[in-house]
Amino acid sequence: MNYMGIGYLSRKLSMYKLGVEKRYRYYSMDDKDNVRSIVTPDSVKQMYRSVLEWTAKGVDSLADRIIFREFADDDFNATEIFQANNPDIFFDTAIQSALIASCCFIYIMPGTDDSLPKMQVIEASKATGILDPTTFLLTEGYAVLETDQNNNPTLEAYFTRDAIWYYPKSGEPYFIDNPTGQPLLVPIIHRPDAVRPFGRSRITKAGMYHQKAAKRTLERAEVTAEFYSFPQKYVLGLDPEADSLETWKATVSTMLAIAKDEDNDRPTVGQFTTASMAPFMDHLKMYASLFAGGSGLTLDDLGFPSDNPSSVEAIKAAHENLRSAGRKAQRSFASGLLNVAYVAVCLRDGFPYSRNLFMNTKIKWEPLFEADAAMMSLVGDGAIKLNQAIPGFIDKEVVYDWTGIKGGGSDAQTVVETNQENDKQANRIISTYEVTSLLEKYQKGVVSKENGVKLLVSMGYSRTEASQMLETTEIKVEE
Predict the structure, then answer these.
(1) What sign does the CA torsion over 15, 21, 26, 32 have?
(2) Which of 54-63, 175-184, 335-344, 378-387 has the lowest mean pLDDT?
């Protein structure tokens, strides 16, 4: 197979590194707006640097809801590998990193002393590769494994299908064999498509612009607040020969005394109208609305609470776009995590399994929104009605997927059965007249025993109960 080589991949990484680091700066709220203002001097602007967390909120609001639960139909026991790699931290780190930078990479390394493979999350600014568009595995990969204090690489790695080459800064290159047949660097991608196979970031260009514009609005508001706190004053008709007032004293003093002149005239003291802060709040709210619309959040999430508290159903409806984005992200991440499990199992067993053997393995997630009392009531009523129409259609696993609440074994299995038995008892009480009429017709010989059994079974009785009822009924023969 022809490889592009480590030099090509290193240059490719340098092309996209700046964009990834920019998004990480926005997420950590370290971004700085260096655009000069036509009104505010640079020295004043430096004094009022504003900070907003909207982009971080857009990432965390989705990352906190995407929670990995388990591998279903795990025939190769890949779960034990993830359990040995701090799953509570591993999954959250991988999901958060992929949402920020559009993708992240999992470096799978052999364990020591026959232990399970180890996995490390590498951010997109330190790894890249050539992607197979059908399996979304890499055909070759490159990663910076270690850096110094100045963020310069000290250990680089080049991944192929049969080996891993390590390039230390101070030392000779060396390699180790790869028995999996796949590069031990696996991407996890958020929202891939045909144009951008390595996905799209949750921090979009529009979101960064809205946050930057909102920050400028806050800075203008901070500067205007200084004039709002100390409005300008004026004095009309002051004698030119009078002692001049000290401006700072006139500003902060609670009382000023100005005497009349020889002609018994006095100057007029007034104050200019101060600038209102309301336009800045309206401007800020406009950008918040634009950001919320693009990220699936609400104004409440961005710090603009509504006057009337929303109901639970209204909150869920307002977050429908966030729910859709979460489901899309779950589907994208499921493919990447399944690829990680596949390569890790191959490395653990030292055998290049066919990827088709993992087609039945599925990834299950916790519900994006936790179930409240109202939702559980609706799920319970819906499960009973569906099972009455189609027996066994809803079981405890389906309810677990809907609510995220794991029931208690046999008790959970018998809930629907108990309700069905109660319905049968109610039907028996309601149909007492029909049963009596049927038995009278059987007694007179109008209805045969076989038809009588069928009719009683349709009323909710078992065939054994129906036969016993007919056998205890005497048949009257008319002479």
Answers:
(1) negative
(2) 378-387
pTM higher than the cut 0.90? no
**According to the model, what pLDDT value does residue 9 have?**
96
Calculate the CA 449 to chain-centre distance: 63
Which residues constitute the domain of residue 424? 372-430
Q: What are phi and psi of 435, to 5 degrees?
A: -65, -45
Residue 476 has pLDDT above 60, yes or no: no
16-20: Cβ within 8 A, 24+ apart:
16/124, 16/125, 16/128, 17/125, 20/101, 20/123, 20/124, 20/125
Exposure string for 404-438, b = 16+ CB within 10 A, e = fewer: beeeeeeebeebbeebeeeeeeeeeeebeeebeeb
Mean pLDDT of 410-428: 48
- Asked whether residue 34 falls in the same domain as residue 72, the answer is yes
- The CA distance from 128 to 107, in Å, is 11
Together in a domain, 184 and 50? yes
Q: Is 432 helix (H, G, I), strand (E, B) or coil?
A: helix
- Domain end position, chosen among 321, 339, 369: 369
**Which amino acid is present at 245?**
L
**Chain position carrying tokens 């990352």:** 63
